Each structure stands twice: as structure tokens, then as C-alpha cells.
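Help! Submission page says 'invalid entity' but I think these are all valid:
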Amino acid sequence: MSGPKFPGFDTLALHAGQQPDRETGARATPIYQSTSFVFDDSDKASSLFDVARAGHVYSRISNPTVAVLEERVAALEGGVGAVCTASGMAAIHLGLTTITGAGGHIVASRSLYGGTHNLLSYTLPRFGIETTFVDPQDPEAFAAAIRPETRVIFAETVANPRCEVLDIPRVAAIAHEAGLPLMIDATLTTPCLMQVLRLGADIVMHSLTKFMGGHGVAVGGVLVDGGRFDWEASGRFPELSEPYAGFHGMNFVEEFGPTAYIMRARKEGLRDFGATLSPGNAFHLLQGLETLSMRMERHVANTSSIVQFLSQQEAVSVVHHPDLPTHPDHALAQKLLPRGAGAVFSFELVGGRAAGSAFIEGLQLFSHLANVGDAKSLVIHPASTTHSRMDDADLQAAGISPGLVRLSVGLENIHDLLADLTQALRRAARVAASAASAVSKGDSA
Amino acid sequence: MKIRLAGAEVFVGQGGVDWEAGRRTLVLQHGAGMDRTVWVLLARYFARHGFNLVCADLPAHGGSRGDALTTVEAQAAFLWQLLDELQESHALPSTPAVLGGHSMGALIAVEAAGQQPERVEQLLLFGSGYPMPVAQPLLEAAAANEQTAVDMIAIYSHCLKSQLGHNAVAGISVQNSAMALLERCAPGVLHADLAACNAYAGLDAAAKAFGEGKATLIVGAEDRMTPLKMSRNLAGQLGAELVVLKDCGHMVMSEQPEDTLQAVRRVLL
């Protein structure tokens, strides 16, 4: 028996979850733009409702096109299964509410995407779910924040925008010691750069809108179950280990074992919250996934060049990217992210907010908008946009200064990107010099 | 449901439906390193089509405690001990049962039928063959509790199409789910199972005791764990009907759930 070989990552990105269509021979995944699916007979109908046969009933719960995307992402992550959602935020919501409810508690990194911060800080508390935020660079802080009612630890692989790298093996060990799952938002790294389930995480979610899709034409999310967490042994998850009156008394652990969590997410969360991904968007996202690893290589290569370039500019006071030895998580990134720490990072300009504005407005190839992970290069000022709902204290805790600029480096020719940055930096430098001169004159007067 | 048997907890799946008098009994026994969840669709289907389902986790598997049993003969004896207990104390009707099993579970079912043929209505075997030799590298990896053992089984148990996917159950990876199950085995359990398969030599006697023409064997055309040649041999010994599923490896229930169901329906309904 020769050594076992699984299909490689690139092969899975192209093929996982799909076979040529039996009826038509279509090689690409067809868009099954249908809300519902005809039952062969009454026995098939009742069996589908009883989860006694496999198949599709209604596209809020499952759809053949969406199912291909779900299985493909599960394969790329090494998970037992996945559920796609209408957006990344819907995936976070589905992931958390499948195992938490009123009276529940979450321990989360304090360095999170602004939308996630809103959900945990303001929205979930209205439904009785509290969150304690901790410094992601201090794994012991996660342990210290765990309470008897804690149900999950949540963090991002590489925090937006200062690129703090989560020590997933350590935090996973802390979570498991307490009988808790570790849920990770891996949007900025994708399974191409880091397979978090293999590092010890139990649940992973993505905003597919970003690098996974890569084209910026479809909003979507996905929740992936690693299938390794023992929900019954933990004793904290009656949603999974006890009969559920809302689904014929089903005990998900008893029936599904390693897929209990993701089955509950679909059977309850998609059914009742209904944040479903459309088949059209699933199709677009599948097209993007096919080239994920090639795109990520280019994203990382372009980012590496730009990080080096910016770190040598007098107009730039600091660059936050783990590629740089000066970054506090440089060594950790070398260990956990050997293929690169992603293409979203931030830097600070000499001259603060005014210089930042001049820089952004001076850019011509970089688009000023609220997204990351597009094939095109993007730029934004977090304090006034993505993180605008955070107060100053939260901003400071998340390491976001008023002059911070965030880049999402795209796939353009690197020489063109560097030229665009160069001319915009000149503008920023002029504004900074003018402001410094004004301050100096003011001092003299 | 969980019961205690010989001092240890045993988990018994019922397909989500309580047992009732007047129904036929269908016993489905999982294979090496697995547990009752491999039967989820078949169990839930036939529990709603006139059968009392008994999908037990062998000792040290799934939700059952105790030490792993090291021979197929001992596993078959455990199955009868369990059925005795269920019939005596848990309202399982005392009628002859359809004994089913996957891979090693199929050997257990045949051996059990040989031990007490009068209590077996018919045999329903999945992804199996005889003899069931296990390659030395796999045995050694399992003995060392290495991940390679799980990887080997996951790869050789699924045809390439199944490895790539397109599962009828939306969003579920059959290969990764199988790996997650295998990785849950306590140290030594997978090796004990594989060694039991490798050593089992009692099928001739069991088949003779049970008799011919009361068995069906459902296998995958691309099974590399128990190749078709071995399946044909097993079917010949039992005088069994052999059903070969296309685009299917060793994990027939998860790789081709609908084709498997239809094959079983033809036998049982």
C-alpha cells in the first residue's frame, strides 16, 4: 500500500463538491435558480422532512448550486461540512447563535472587524448574549474571561487593521481545557494561507465576499464545522446533545456525531433565521474560488513589495504587517502563516488625519471604498468608516489611530501600484509639511 | 439510548423512533473505527418504515465505553448479549432480526448469524468481503496510533469522485466526516478492529451454519478496502445476491446514499 495522497488544494478548489451534471453534461456548476424541488413521490417527500433521505426541499434550507460551494469550502478547510449564508456577518451570527442563547456568554478578541464588534457589543446583548473582549495577543486573557455560562471563544486569524496574529494553537488549547469550542473568522487569510481547523480551531467562518470570491461582485458567507469538538463531553451544549423539540425531538449528537453542529446550524439556523445565500451568488463565488491559490500568491507577493516600500518612506511613520521584523507577531506569523500573512494591512502617515486624507484622495489606482479582498487594490480610513461606530476608547483598544490608513492590496502590476503610492505619498508629505510649517509659525507668533 | 451492559455503558441508536411490538427488527453494525452515525439515513428511513432499529456502538466506539473487543467472534457474542438485554429489559420484541453490517460489521453480522442462526431472518451486508486482510503498513500505523492510519482508510475507502465530493447530503464532506469519526477513536481501538478483521477465519463455518440464500451484499465498484474480488467470494460463500454500486468505494452508505437505500428497499420492503 503506497503512501496515501489526498487531492491537492488546487484540485479541490476546482473540483470539490461538483461532478459534471448528469442530465446535461455541463462541466461548470449550473445555477439552480429554483426556490423548491419536486418530490418523486410522497415517500420521498416525508423522508426528506424526516432527514431519512438526502436531497433538496426548499432553497432557504439547501440548494444544489449553493451545496457545491458549501462542500468545496468544507474540503478546502478540512471540515466535515459547511453552510453558506447571505453574508459573512450572517455566518458569524449563525455560528454563534447555533450554540448560544439568552444567558450565554462569549469571550472574543477585542480586535475585530467593526461589524462583528457591533454584533457582539450592541446587538447580541439585546437578546441576552454578553461578550467579554480581551487582548488577542494575550492568550491567557481568554482563559481569565471564561465564565460558567461561556459558550464559545471567538477571534480573527489576523486582526483588521493592525495585523495582530492569533496564536490559534494556544487559544484552542485554552478553549478545549474549558470545554469550549474556538470559532475563527479566517476571512483575511483564507484556507490558502492558513487552515485554522488543522491548528486546533473547531469552527471557521468566512466572508466569501472578500478573497474567497475575489472579484467583488457577490456578497456571501460560509460557516464550516471541523467536526472534532466533543459537544456531549463538554456538557455545555444541550442544543446539540439533548432532544430538540423544534425538530421532531432530534438529538443532533446522537444522530449525526461529528456533523452535529453544522446539521443543527442548517436545520435550525437557516430554517428560522433564513439568511440564505442565493444560487446566483454561489455561482459567482465558485468562479472566484477556482483561482484562489493563484490569486493569494499574487496578493501576498504584491503586499510584500508594498510593505517593504512603505517601510522605507519618510512620509510613513509605521507599517503594521507581520512581514516586518518590527511587528510584534512577526515570529508567530512566520510559524503559523508561512505562505504569507495576507494582503490587508495598515500604516500611519506622518501628518496624521490631514495627511491620511490627502493620501487617500491622491490615489488613482487604489479605490476608496469599504471592502477588502477584491482583485483590485483598495484603501480606506477605518476611523471614519468601517470602525466609525466604535467610541474612542474602543478604537484605541483596537489599535486604530485617527491617521491610520488601511490597504487591501490587489492583483495589479506591482510597478503600477508602487507608482500610485509614490505620487500619493508626495501629496501627503506636502500636506504634512504645510501643517508642520503652520504649527511652527504659530509657535513663533 | 444508553444502557449498561456487563458494567459498561453502551449506546444504541434507534433511528429516532422508539421500538414497538409488531415491527421487524433491523440491526445495523458499524465497521472498524466507526460508530452508529454511519447509518443515520438508513436507520431513520427504516425506523419510519416498519422496523425497530438497533444501531449499537461497539465497546470503546462512539458513545459506548469499555474496552475494545479484539476478535470478530467476541464482537458477535457482544451483539447477542446486547440483543438479549434489549429484549429482556428494554422492550425490543423477541423476533428474528435482519442483521446488517458494514465492513467489519458485516463480518460480525455473518459470525453472529452462524452463532445463533435461528434468531436471524436474513443478512444485509455493506462494503465487505472475505477474507479481509489488512495491509501491514496500515496495521502498523494503527498500532502506533498515527494519523497516517486515518489518512489511509479515508483515501482507500472513498472512490475519487467521493473524495472530490458532490454529496447528496447538502454541504457535508463524506471523506472528512469519516476522518473525524476515525480520529475520535481512543488509542488502540482502530488497531484492535483492524487486527480483528485481519485475523478472522471463521466465515466458512458461520456461513455453513447460517445457510445459503438469505443474504444480500451491497458493495462499491471502486472499493479498495475490500475489493470486489473479496466481495464476490463472500457472496459466493453465503449464496448472497451481490449488488455493485457505480461511482462508489467502501463507504457505500455515505458515498451513494440513495442507491444504497434503493438496494435495501428492494430487499426489505
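Support: the input was valid. A stray whitespace character was the problem, and the output above is from the cleaned input. Chain B has a mean pLDDT of 97.
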